[in-house]
Write a structure and sequence with these properties.
The structure holds 3 protein chains of 3 kinds. By secondary structure, chain A is α/β, with parallel strands linked by helices. Chain A contains 12 helices and 12 strands. Chain C is mostly helical. In chain C, 71% of the residues lie in helices and 0% in strands. Classes of the chains: A alpha/beta, B alpha/beta, C mainly alpha.
C-alpha cells in the first residue's frame, strides 16, 4: 500500500528453491520463490496440497536448507550466519505445526512443554518464575484459568486447547515471526475462528509477522485482509498481491478456480455462483512437470503454442500492486511494467 | 402432499460404555426426508451426527444400538418398512438396494490388495439375491457407474486403491454406493480431507448425479459451506439432538437457535464484505455428562433461568415447506436475532 | 473411541502398573516374581548361614527338620535353596542393567545424531553380534578359573547390548521425525535434552520390557555356566546346586530328587513370572492391542 511506509522485512525468501532427490528422479518442490514477511503483517500462502506450501514454510523456518536461493532474517542469510545470530533467528522465527495431536510431547505436562525453551536458555531463574511466565503465556493464548492447565498432559486437552498450547510454546521464545502451517485446518469451525482471533491479536498487539499457510481462501481472506496472499502452484507463485485484490478480483485462472471452489456459507450466493471448470481435476506429478506454464493442462484459458511453449514470468500487471504469471492474462492486460522482478 | 421416503420418529441411539454405563449419542431425533431431497446434518465433532447417520442404516458398531423410535423407509415397491425391526438377512437386502452409505475417509474404505474391479464384483454379487450376474454384466455395470462419476472405467477397474488419488477414490465410493440404485444415499463428510478443487468437483458431481438419478441424500458435515451448496434442508445437531431444522434459506438467513447462529457467525465467507467472526464460548459438553435443561445453556448468551430446567422441544416457527417447515428447539426462539457486523467492505 | 482409552492413563508408570494389575496373567506373574524375590532376599535373614556338612546325614529324605532333605554333603537343601537365589538374580539384573544402559545411550544417540557416530555404532554392533557370547563366556571362564560373578555380569552385559541398541536406534529414528521433537528442536533445546528428556521417556515402557527380557536371558546364561561347571564352586547358587545334583547322580535316588528339582523349579518359576509380566506390559503399551 503506497500510503504506508513499509517496514523492512523480517524474513525474506529469495529465489528459494528446494529439490528433493528421490529414486524416481529429482522432485522440484519449490522453484525460485520470493516472499517477504513484515512485522505485524500477514503473508498468506495458499494452494492445493503438494504445491510446495509446506516445503516453503519449512525452508523459511530454517528446518530445511534450500538447494538454491536464500532465506534471510533481518538481511542475514540464515544458512551461513554465525551461531549467535542463528540462535537469535531460531528464537525469533517459530513454527506452528498443523496437527496439535502430533506436535506436543505426550509425556510432558503443559508447563514443561511451554517453559522448556525458557528454562534451557536461563530466561527464568526459579520454578515459581517459570510457572508464572507459563501462566502468562497461556493467558495470552486464551487458555484461562491458566493455572488449571499447567499440570495437564496433552491427552487431557481438546484439539483446540492443544493448538493453543503449541502457540504458547512458540510465544515463549518471544518470536517476531510465526510460521503457521495449516494450523487451524484440523479444528472445528467455532474453535478455528476463536484461534484465528487469538492469532489476530498477536499480530495486532505484539506486531508479530505471519507466514500463514492454508488451502482455505475464506480463512486467508479473514486472517490476511490487511496483508498479502501468494498463490502457489507446483512450487511456483502464480499470483501475489494485497488480499482484497486477490480475493475480490482474482486474475490468474488458478486463483479464480480456487476462489470459486470455496463452498460459500450462503445458499443463494452458492446457487448463483459460477464455478471455474478446470480441464482436469488431477494435479500433475512433480516428477513429470508439464512444459511451459505448468498449469496449462488444467487451465481453461489454455492457448496451444503459447502456454505450453514457455513458462510465464511472475511480473507486475499494469496499474496494479499484484504480480501474476500468466501469458494470456498478461497479454490481454497490456505489457508488464518495466523493472518488474 | 407427497409422501416422505424416509420418516424418522423419536429415534434414540445408545452406546454401551461399560458394564453398567452408557451414553445416549442421539436422542429423540425426528425428521422426514422426501424423494429427491437433500438434507444436511451439521454440527461440531462429537455432536452425534455420524452416529445418527450410521443408525439410519443400522450400521452401528457392536456397542451401539437403537434404543427407541422408528426409522421407516418407503421401499421401491411402495411398501413401508421400519428397519429397526428387521432381521440381519432382511437388513442386508435392504442396504444398497434401498439405501446406501458412503463412509468417511475414502482412503480406508478399500481393501488394499483388491483391484477396483473386484470391489465392484464383490458389491454387486453379494447383494444380488437369486439371479447371479455374469462377469460381463458386472463389468458393463461397473463401467456405466464409473463413467457416471466421470472416471475412465478401463484404467480405474484395473487399478489398485493406492494407485488412485483421494478424489478418485471418493468418486468410486459414490459409484459403488449407487450400484444398486438406492433411493436414499447417506454420506458422511463426503469432502473432508480432500483438496479444495477436488472438493468442488465432488460437489458438482453430487449435484449432477442427483439430478440424473433422483435419489434423496442425507449428508453429514461440519462444513456449513457444503451444507449451503448441497442441501435443500438443513438440520443442526447439538449434543445428540436436532436443535434446528428447516430449508437451507430459513436456517442460513433466519437461524433461530443460538447454536446455529453461533455456527454461522464462525464461518468466513469468501465472496463479498468481510464480516466480524465470532466463536461460541466454551466447548461442547460430553455426551456422558450433559447439562440440565437445554444442553446448550451454559454456552448460550440468550439463556434465561428456564433454560436450566426445561428441555426445549423442536417447535415449528414457520410452517412453510415440508417436514414441518422451520423449527427450532429453543425457549427463546422468538427473540433470537441474527445480525452480522461488517469489518471491511468488499 | 480413542479418546476414551486415552483418558485416565497418566504417565508411563501408571500404564505399566495398570498393564500388570489389570491382566490376570500379568498379576499372577508379578505375584510369582515378588514371592521369589521375598523368598530369596528376605529368607536369607531367617536361615542358618553355616549349614554345616554332616557325614551322618547324607541324602536324607524330606522331613520336619530338613524340609527338602539334605544333599550329598549332608547340608540342608532348603537352606541352600534360600541362599542360592541371590546371586543369579542380582548378577542377571546387573548384566541386564549394563546391556540396557549401553544400548539406550548408544542407540539413542546413534539414531538421533546419525552421521559418523551412527556408522561407528552400527559397525560395532555388527562386530559384537558375530561374537557368540556363550562361547566367549566359556572361554573366559575356563581360562581365568576364578572369575567373579561381577565379571560374569560385565561380560554378559557387554556382549548382548547390540540387539537392543539396534531396536532402540530404530525407534529413535521414527520418534525423532515426530512433530513434537521438531518443535523441541525449534526451541533450541540442545541434543542431550531432546534425546534424554523428550525422546527417551516416550520409550520408557519399551525399555523397561527389554530390561526384564535381558534379566531372563542373563539368568539363563549364568545358570548355564554353573551347570557346565565353568564358574568357581564357592558361593551358594541355584546353578551350582543343579550341577552338583547332576554330578552326584541325584536323579537316580528318589529321596535326593528335591536337591535337583527345587532349584530347577525356582528358576523356571522366576522366568515364567517375568515372561508373564512382560507379556502383559507389552499389551498395555501396544496401543492397537489396548483399544480392544
Amino acid at each position: 500500500m503506497p500510503e504506508q511506509t513499509e517496514s523492512a522485512p523480517l524474513l525474506e525468501l529469495s529465489k528459494c528453491e528446494q529439490i528433493f532427490r528421490t529414486k524416481r528422479g529429482d522432485v522440484r518442490a519449490v522453484a525460485g520463490v520470493d516472499l517477504e514477511v513484515r512485522p505485524g503483517k500477514v503473508l498468506c500462502l495458499v494452494g492445493e496440497s503438494g504445491c510446495g506450501k509446506t516445503t516453503t514454510a519449512r525452508a523459511a523456518a530454517g528446518l530445511t536448507r534450500p538447494t538454491a536461493g536464500w532465506v534471510r532474517y533481518k538481511g542475514e542469510d540464515v544458512n551461513t550466519m554465525d551461531s549467535a545470530s542463528r540462535q537469535a533467528f531460531r528464537e525469533a522465527v517459530q513454527y506452528i505445526h498443523q496437527d496439535p495431536y502430533a506436535s506436543l510431547n505426550p509425556v510432558r505436562t503443559v508447563y514443561s512443554t511451554v517453559t522448556a525453551g525458557l528454562r534451557r536458555h536461563k530466561l527464568v531463574k526459579t520454578r515459581t518464575e517459570a510457572r508464572a511466565k507459563a501462566a502468562e503465556l497461556l493467558e495470552l493464548v486464551d487458555l484461562t484459568p491458566a493455572e488449571s492447565y499447567l499440570d495437564k498432559y496433552p491427552h487431557q486437552l481438546s484439539g483446540g486447547q492443544r493448538q493453543r498450547v503449541a502457540i504458547a510454546r512458540a510465544l515463549a521464545m518471544g518470536p517476531q515471526v510465526l510460521i503457521a502451517d495449516e494450523s487451524t485446518s484440523m479444528l472445528d469451525v467455532s474453535i478455528r475462528v476463536s484461534l484465528l482471533n487469538t492469532l489476530g491479536r498477536l499480530r495486532d498487539d505484539l506486531d508479530v509477522g505471519f507466514l500463514f499457510i492454508t488451502h482455505d481462501l475464506a480463512v486467508a481472506k479473514y486472517f490476511a485482509w490487511d496483508g498479502e496472499i501468494a498463490v502457489m502452484y507446483l512450487g511456483e507463485i502464480v499470483e501475489q498481491g494485497p488480499t482484497p485484490q486477490i480475493i475480490n478480483d482474482p486474475q490468474h485462472p488458478y486463483t479464480k478456480a480456487l476462489i470459486s471452489a470455496v463452498c460459500e456459507p450462503d445458499p443463494r450466493l452458492a446457487r448463483e455462483k459460477k464455478t471455474v471448470r478446470l480441464r482436469s481435476s488431477e494435479i500433475p506429478s512433480l516428477t513429470a512437470l508439464p512444459s511451459g506454464c505448468t498449469f496449462h493442462p488444467r487451465c481453461p484459458l489454455f492457448e496451444p503454442g503459447l502456454c505450453d511453449a514457455s513458462a510465464p514470468p511472475l511480473s507486475l500487471i499494469n496499474g496494479d500492486a499484484r504480480r501474476l504469471a500468466c501469458h494470456v492474462v498478461a497479454r490481454d492486460h497490456g505489457p508488464a511494467r518495466a523493472g518488474a522482478n | 402432499m407427497r409422501e416422505p421416503i424416509l420418516s424418522v420418529r423419536d429415534l434414540s441411539i445408545v452406546y454401551r460404555t461399560g458394564r453398567r454405563t452408557s451414553v445416549t449419542a442421539a436422542q429423540d431425533v425426528s425428521f422426514d426426508l422426501y424423494p429427491g431431497q437433500s438434507m444436511a446434518l451439521v454440527g461440531e465433532s462429537g455432536c452425534g451426527k455420524t452416529t445418527l447417520g450410521l443408525g439410519l442404516l443400522r450400521l452401528l458398531p457392536r456397542l451401539g444400538q437403537v434404543s427407541k423410535g422408528e426409522i421407516v423407509y418407503r421401499l421401491k415397491d411402495g411398501m413401508s418398512v421400519d428397519i429397526t425391526g428387521l432381521a440381519k438377512e432382511e437388513l442386508r437386502r435392504f442396504r444398497w438396494h434401498e439405501a446406501a452409505m458412503v463412509f468417511q475417509g475414502a482412503m480406508n474404505s478399500f481393501n488394499p490388495v483388491l483391484r477396483i474391479g473386484e470391489h465392484f464384483t464383490d458389491t454387486l454379487r453379494s447383494h444380488e439375491g437369486e439371479k447371479r450376474r455374469t462377469r460381463a454384466e458386472i463389468t458393463a455395470r461397473a463401467t456405466e457407474l464409473l463413467s457416471m462419476v466421470r472416471l475412465e472405467p478401463e484404467r480405474v477397474l484395473k487399478s489398485f486403491p493406492h494407485e488412485l488419488s483421494g478424489g478418485m477414490k471418493q468418486r468410486i465410493l459414490i459409484a459403488l454406493a449407487l450400484a444398486l440404485e438406492p433411493q436414499v444415499l447417506v454420506l458422511d463428510e463426503p469432502t473432508t480431507a480432500l483438496d479444495i478443487l477436488t472438493q468442488r468437483s465432488i460437489v458438482e458431481q453430487l449435484h449432477e448425479l442427483r439430478e440424473r438419478l433422483g435419489f434423496a441424500m442425507i449428508f453429514i458435515t461440519h462444513d456449513l459451506g457444503l451444507a449451503a451448496e448441497l442441501a435443500d434442508r438443513v438440520a443442526t445437531m447439538y449434543a445428540g439432538r436436532i436443535i434446528e431444522k428447516g430449508s437451507a434459506e430459513d436456517v442460513f438467513y433466519e437461524p433461530r437457535h443460538p447454536y446455529t447462529v453461533g455456527l454461522i457467525k464462525a464461518v468466513p465467507p469468501v465472496i463479498g464484505d468481510l464480516p466480524e467472526l465470532s466463536s461460541i464460548a466454551g466447548s461442547p459438553p460430553s455426551l456422558a455428562d450433559l447439562p440440565s435443561g437445554c444442553s446448550f445453556h451454559p454456552r448460550c448468551e440468550w439463556a434465561v433461568d428456564a433454560c436450566r430446567e426445561t428441555v426445549p422441544s423442536l417447535t415449528v416457527l414457520t410452517p412453510r415447506g415440508e417436514d414441518g417447515g422451520h423449527a427450532a428447539a429453543c425457549l427463546r426462539a422468538g427473540d433470537i436475532e441474527y445480525t452480522r457486523k461488517v469489518v471491511a467492505r468488499a | 473411541m480413542s479418546t476414551k482409552t486415552k483418558k485416565g492413563t497418566g504417565g508411563t508408570l501408571s500404564v505399566l502398573w495398570q498393564g500388570i494389575t489389570r491382566s490376570p496373567s500379568g498379576f499372577t506373574g508379578m505375584c510369582i516374581v515378588v514371592a521369589i524375590l521375598a523368598f530369596v532376599f528376605l529368607g536369607r535373614f531367617l536361615v542358618d548361614h553355616d549349614n554345616p556338612t554332616d557325614p551322618d546325614a547324607l541324602w536324607l529324605p524330606m522331613s520336619g527338620e530338613h524340609w527338602l532333605g539334605t544333599n550329598f554333603e549332608g547340608k540342608d537343601t532348603f537352606t541352600k535353596l534360600v541362599l542360592g537365589g541371590a546371586e543369579p538374580i542380582w548378577v542377571g539384573a546387573l548384566a541386564a542393567a549394563i546391556t540396557v544402559v549401553v544400548a539406550v545411550i548408544l542407540g539413542a544417540l546413534a539414531g538421533y545424531l546419525r552421521g559418523r557416530f551412527d556408522d561407528i555404532v552400527l559397525q560395532a554392533t555388527d562386530i559384537t553380534m558375530t561374537i557368540p557370547f556363550i562361547t566367549v563366556l566359556i572361554i573366559v571362564a575356563s581360562y581365568f578359573r576364578n572369575i567373579s560373578p561381577l565379571m560374569v555380569a560385565l561380560i554378559i552385559g557387554l556382549l548382548t547390548w547390540p540387539f537392543l541398541t539396534r531396536s532402540i536406534r530404530a525407534q529413535v529414528l521414527t520418534l525423532k521425525e515426530r512433530e513434537f521433537i521438531e518443535a523441541a528442536k525449534l526451541q533450541n533445546l540442545g541434543t542431550t535434552r531432546v534425546v534424554f528428556v523428550d525422546i527417551l521417556p516416550n520409550m520408557a515402557g519399551y525399555i523397561f520390557i527389554n530390561f526384564i527380557i535381558a534379566v531372563t536371558n542373563a539368568i539363563y546364561a549364568i545358570v548355564g555356566l554353573y551347570l557346565l561347571g565353568l564358574l568357581p564352586s564357592t558361593a551358594e547358587n541355584w546353578g551350582l546346586m543343579i550341577q552338583q545334583a547332576w554330578q552326584n547322580s541325584a536323579y537316580l535316588l528318589p529321596r535326593a530328587l528335591p536337591f535337583l528339582l527345587a532349584p530347577l523349579a525356582m528358576i523356571a518359576l522366576f522366568q515364567v513370572g517375568l515372561v508373564l509380566v512382560t507379556r502383559s506390559l507389552e499389551q498395555a503399551l501396544n496401543p492397537r492391542l489396548r483399544e480392544r
